Amino acid sequence: MIGIVGGVGPYAGTDLLNKIFNNTLASKDQEHLDAILLSMSSKIEDRTEYLLGKVKINPALAIVEVLHKLELIGSTIAGIPCNTAHSKKIFDTIQLELEKSKSRIKLLNMIDETVLFIASNYPDITKIGVLSTTGTYKSKLYASALRLKGYEAIVPPLEMQENTIHPAIYDKVYGIKTISNPIHPQARQNLLEGCSYLEEQGAELVILGCTEIPLAITESKINNMITVDPTNILARALIKYIDPLKLKPL
Q: What's the topology of domain 110-229?
């Protein structure tokens, strides 16, 4: 059974669940894989605010509680639809706490799965852009993972990150976390500005490195730049782990 750590954010959890259904070969209800979405937003501190030192409690602790509940219900594998939660300070603590509790649930790493997907499907690409929260940006989560694999990682300058990209996600008036359905036009416009900058710098592909961003940018390409959705990649990895024969071909 697939487990989803929801609430990080709430719409990102439902997006992952939808993408699990969308990527599953099934002709009737009974042929879909069993999945549990447990959304406990009120319990989990904001991941970016923790990384920036604005809150002291590591959100890893609440995430582990959710994982324990998912395992108790019957999940054997789980995913966290939040890129920032995979930063070292958070994800390493999650894994350590799971080991300490002797949990047997397998937790996939969204960042590792995304880099592996790019290497497998776009072998000729060398320059990769990343749009993300400021927490992911400053922790160099994707940049480090990509450089280890020999890619050139391209990110917006800090001013654009803080004044354009991050507000597209967090702004209290138009950010995706405030207005998720439908997305506010200003949020999408900010993200498209970021895409244009990355393409101007030579990016051939852009990772939509915050699970709120694919809610606003749904195209497979922006101009001549390929878009990669880590939520969709995580969905496919979860399906493949449970039953590879259920995975729709790309």
A: Rossmann fold (3.40.50)
Q: Where are the domains of the chain?
A: 2-109+232-246, 110-229
* Span 2-109+232-246 CATH architecture: 3-Layer(aba) Sandwich (3.40)
- Mean pLDDT of the residues in the chain: 96
Q: Three-state SS string across the chain, please?
A: CEEEEECCCHHHHHHHHHHHHHCECCCCHHHCCCEEEEECHHHCCCHHHHHCCCCCCCCHHHHHHHHHHHHHHCCCEEECCCCHHHCHHHHHHHHHHHHHCCCCCEECCHHHHHHHHHHHHCCCCCEEEEECCHHHHHHCHHHHHHHHCCCEEECCCHHHHHHHHHHHHHCCCCCCCCCECCECHHHHHHHHHHHHHHHHCCCCEEEECCCCHHHHCCCCEECCEEEECHHHHHHHHHHHHHCHHHECCC
User: According to the model, what pLDDT value does residue 194 have?
Assistant: 97
Mean pLDDT along residues 146-173 = 96
Torsional sign, CA 175, 227, 51, 235: positive
Mean pLDDT (whole number) for 227-236: 98
Dump pLDDT digits (tens) for 163-203.
Answer: 999 999 999 999 999 999 999 999 999 999 999 999 999 99
Say yes or no: do domains 2-109+232-246 and 110-229 share a fold.
yes
